[in-house]
């Protein structure tokens, strides 16, 4: 027995991200920031995993328990380094923007004095 299929509704377009101004300051748009944040996340996860794993194993925990603790330590290290590096780069990007604005202001004032 074949079932009659009702015609499908046309798919609604997915809601995209909000439009951002071309002059908006973004960490994700900064090439050094994204690479540095990715690197910090990786190092944080590896250091957390190795440090907690080693300390748990040396403390006499069973290998399974030490591995689970190491995994949790890796996740915590990953998240902690990610949050810290985003905060650091947020301040650095804002400082770079202020320095460029100050430099442009000085150039404009020097140009207006000579004219």
Word description of this protein:
The chain has about 120 residues and is mainly alpha-helical. It has one domain. Helix content is about 70%, strand content about 0%. It is built from two helices and no strands. The chain has helices at about 30-60, 65-115. Helix 1 runs antiparallel to helix 2 (about 65-115). The N and C termini lie far apart (about 90 Å).
Characteristics of this structure?
single chain; 115 residues; mainly alpha; 2 helices
In short:
This protein has 115 residues and is an all-alpha fold. It has two helices and no strands. The protein is flat.
Task: Please give the oligomerization state of what you see.
Answer: single chain
Number of domains: 1
Helical amount among residues, as a percent range? 55-70%
Q: What is the SS-derived class?
A: mainly alpha
Strands, count: 0
Low-confidence runs? none
Give the ordered list of helices and strands.
Answer: HH
Rg is 26 Å
Shape: flat
Mean pLDDT figure: 88
SSE diagram, text form:
Elements: H1 31-58, H2 63-114
Helix pairs in contact: 1-2
């Amino acid at each position: 027995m074949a079932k009659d299929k009702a015609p499908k509704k046309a798919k609604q377009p997915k809601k995209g991200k909000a439009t951002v101004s071309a002059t908006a300051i973004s960490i994700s748009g900064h090439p050094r920031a994204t690479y540095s944040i990715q690197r910090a996340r990786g190092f944080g996860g590896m250091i957390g995993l190795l440090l907690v794993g080693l300390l748990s194993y040396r403390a006499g925990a069973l290998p399974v328990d030490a591995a689970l603790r190491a995994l949790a330590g890796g996740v915590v290290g990953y998240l902690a380094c990610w949050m810290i590096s985003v905060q650091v780069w947020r301040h650095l990007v804002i400082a770079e923007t202020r320095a460029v604005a100050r430099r442009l202001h000085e150039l404009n004032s020097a140009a207006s004095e000579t004219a």
